[in-house]
User: Fold this.
Amino acid sequence: MKQRFVSNKSRSSSRNLIVSIIVFFIIFGCFWFGISSFSDKASYQEKQTLETAVSRGIAHCYAIEGAYPESLQYLKEHYGLIYDEDRFFIDYQILGSNIMPDVTIIDKEDGQ
Assistant:
């Protein structure tokens, strides 16, 4: 009859610990997913902004000087183009004197 009054606190506390750990990892996973999603969106927006800045710089140069810039360096020096060169690689290819240059922007951090 003594067993009727014995509680199973150790089993109950083990179960509570396991449930707490599972809930913690679910909340942590949701938090991690939200942060990485926000970071990806910010990176995409930063690249889009750089593409817009380069295109506008090229168009502005053509409107003022009547010719497209001969290099990316020219855009930097004369039209104030500034970007994170450690983060982005810009391939600037001249196609001809009256043809807008082909510009490709690569986010170096996407590959890592």
Summary: The first helix runs from residue 9 to 65. Strands lie at 88-93, 102-107.
